[in-house]
Specification:
The complex is a heterodimer of chains A (about 230) and B (about 375).
Chain A lengths: L1 H5 L9 H26 L4 H33 L4 H29 L10 H23 L5 H26 L5 H29 L17
Chain B lengths: L11 H29 L1 H8 L5 H15 L2 H14 L4 H14 L2 H8 L5 H32 L1 H14 L9 H19 L4 H45 L3 H14 L2 H13 L5 H14 L1 H8 L5 H23 L1 H20 L1 H23 L1
Helix pairs in contact in B: 1-4, 1-9, 1-10, 3-4, 3-5, 3-17, 4-5, 4-10, 4-14, 4-15, 5-7, 5-15, 6-7, 6-12, 6-17, 7-12, 7-13, 7-15, 7-16, 8-15, 10-11, 11-12, 11-13, 12-13, 13-15, 14-15, 15-16, 16-17
Classes of the chains: A mainly alpha (about 230), B mainly alpha (about 375).
Chain lengths: ~230, ~375
């Protein structure tokens, strides 16, 4: 640790390693999402993926703790000049952790006996799952990009918001559906979790560029994304 | 994510030149102080420093002086300048530098008071701050009587000093002294040109030296803090993931030498301790390292002095801090004493918040004032 003082580094004011860790945390959350949806939408055994998801969740929580500590160190050493960025990171970490929790919620659906593999919607849901999984990667790329523009963030937010709005419409349609409850309720709950994940992905990207967002930008109901 | 740009982004040669220039100005300040005292004459010197003949009064002066300037680097540099002028003897200066060690802890204790509103946070922050106080007070309680009875600390320092620059009482031809001679001469000429002579000129030279020392140290500290902030952050993160101990102590030395201020090193730890990011046991060795690291400034100041005694005092400061660590940290039984005392005091402070403020006022102002008034 003394040698760490003398080592030269291109770390941008101490934030590069925080961004790298946060992106790895998001990668873990994506891993959990992929596994949880696999258990729900295919014949994969929930018990088998369950342990992996819970281990990943613990890893996410551990990285979150480390990053919170790093942020306190940053403010203590560098002063309050970067307080906006620190606030953004705090918010961002919370949102990544919530994505991990929502993946766990999806797993719990399959652990509770819900099986969407044989449903007519299964193929469509699997396609949508892949789209959401790709959005995790794009979120990570935007976080890593130091030159990301407001336009790029807005374009991403608009795209994800449109998908979330589509999910909301579907959830609303389930409310008045003639189909039996045991068919539509699991679908509505699953769509609700995915919608929350999408809201958090937008929140992550926004938090990384604007720590205290304008109230007008809360298009995805960020207040209920936990 | 984008972050602010700063002084650290200037080209490396420009940054290095700024730091070297500031150190040069600092050394000019030390030399001005020494020259000013010499101008005053022996009668005035005797009257000014007679209070320091009592070691407890000298200790109190060291505490008060350091509390006043909030920097042991500044106060010990002034002491080195005074010793160089011959106005202050090594025997009188050693208790003063011990006092400077105690006085410098006021800064992080004041920082810890910023956490006073939240009990848990305040308990941790106040304990992390006062563990430094307790260590320094205990070190002085043990080592000052030993020094007064045996002179062991000053003897060790004198031995090293003699090997490096020659015996006490001789004149040391410091190359640095020669480099700063010219601007000090300009200052003398300037004050002479405005009609000052004798004691008034000496007093003004001393004041000029003090102002230069304080300003130069302030700018050195600010500049260095900006320059090494990323390295400090990285090394603290590394320490947090691997624990404390002797390596944390070394880290405290390195950071303090880099920023030229123990107060900065120890004050960084307070919010970390308050937030629970660093434990008291892991913060403690870093503060001890800061004690040792801060002695580099007085050693630097002694380079601009013409007497080997000034180097002896600077080395005595370093020897005292190393001896304190050997007695109170290396011995496992003694290691817990400052920690437990700080925890107990923090418990009391959380119960009665006013007692924390009373502690600071009594420890750093009232007690040393009584020391100077009664024993000086």
């Amino acid at each position: 640790m003394v040698l760490a003082f003398f080592r030269s580094s291109s770390d941008d004011g101490g934030f590069d390693h925080i961004v790298a860790k946060a992106v790895s945390m998001l990668g873990d959350a994506r891993h959990s999402f992929d596994l949880a949806t696999l258990a729900l939408l295919t014949e994969a055994d929930p018990a088998t993926v369950g342990k992996d998801i819970r281990d990943t969740d613990q890893r996410i929580n551990q990285i979150e703790l480390e990053l919170r500590s790093d942020l306190v160190v940053h403010v203590s050493v560098q002063g309050t000049a970067d307080i906006g960025s620190v606030l953004g990171f705090t918010l961002l970490l919370k949102k990544i952790e919530r994505v991990g929790d929502q993946a766990k919620n999806i797993l719990e659906l399959s652990e509770n006996g819900v099986d969407l593999a044989g449903r007519p919607e299964a193929a469509r849901l699997l396609e949508e799952r892949q789209v959401v999984s790709d959005l995790f990667l794009r979120t990570g790329a935007l976080m890593r990009d130091p030159d990301v523009t407001d336009e790029e963030i807005s374009a991403f937010a608009d795209e994800v918001s449109a998908k979330a709005d589509g999910l909301q419409e579907r959830i609303d349609s389930f409310m008045t559906s003639d189909r039996p409850g045991h068919e539509v309720v699991p679908l509505a709950i699953y769509d609700r979790y995915v919608r929350r994940i999408l809201a958090n992905l937008v929140g992550i990207v926004r938090a990384s560029s604007e720590p205290v967002p304008n109230a007008a930008e809360h298009t995805l109901g960020d207040d209920i994304d936990d | 994510m984008t972050v602010r740009r700063s002084f650290a982004d200037l080209p490396a040669p420009l940054r290095s030149a700024t730091v070297v220039a500031l150190i040069y100005v600092f050394l000019v300040g030390v030399s001005s102080l020494e020259t000013g005292i010499k101008i005053m004459g022996s009668d005035t010197q005797e009257r000014l420093f007679s209070a320091a003949e009592n070691p407890l009064a000298a200790l109190s002066i060291g505490i008060l002086g350091t509390v006043l300037v909030q920097s042991s680097s500044a106060s010990t540099s002034v002491i080195v300048g005074l010793v160089a002028s011959g106005a202050l003897g090594v025997d009188d200066a050693v208790p003063m530098v011990m006092g400077a060690n105690i006085g410098t802890t006021v800064t992080n204790t004041l920082v810890s008071l910023g956490h006073i509103r939240q009990s848990g946070e305040f308990r941790r922050a106040f304990a992390a701050a006062t563990v430094h106080d307790f260590f320094n007070v205990l070190a002085v309680s043990i080592l000052l009587p030993v020094e007064l009875l045996t002179g062991v600390i000053s003897s060790i320092a004198q031995g090293i000093s003699e090997r490096l620059v020659g015996a006490s009482g001789t004149e040391w031809k410091s190359p640095v002294k020669a480099w700063v001679k010219e601007p000090v001469g300009w200052l003398q000429d300037f004050w002479g040109a405005v009609g000052l002579d004798g004691n008034p000129k000496g007093i003004v030279m001393v004041l000029t030296g003090l102002v230069i020392i304080l300003l130069a140290l302030t700018f050195i500290t600010k500049t260095m803090r900006t320059l090494v902030a990323d390295r400090v952050e990285r090394s603290i993160n590394a320490m947090l993931s691997r624990g404390g101990g002797m390596v944390a102590l070394l880290l405290g030395i390195v950071i303090t030498i880099a920023v030229q201020s123990s107060s900065i090193t120890t004050s960084i730890l307070i919010p970390l301790a308050g937030a629970g990011v660093i434990t008291l046991r892991n913060a403690y060795p870093v503060t001890l390292g800061a004690n040792v690291g801060t002695t580099i400034t007085a050693l630097l100041a002694s380079l601009a002095a013409s007497s080997p005694d000034s180097l002896t005092v600077a080395l005595a400061h370093a020897t005292f801090n190393v001896a304190g660590i050997l007695v109170l940290y290396v011995i496992p039984l003694a290691r817990d004493v400052p920690i437990r005392a700080a925890e107990k005091l923090a418990d009391v402070a959380v119960e009665r918040r006013t007692s924390a403020v009373a502690y600071v006022a009594f420890m750093f102002i009232v007690l040393p004032l009584i020391g100077v008034a009664v024993l000086g």
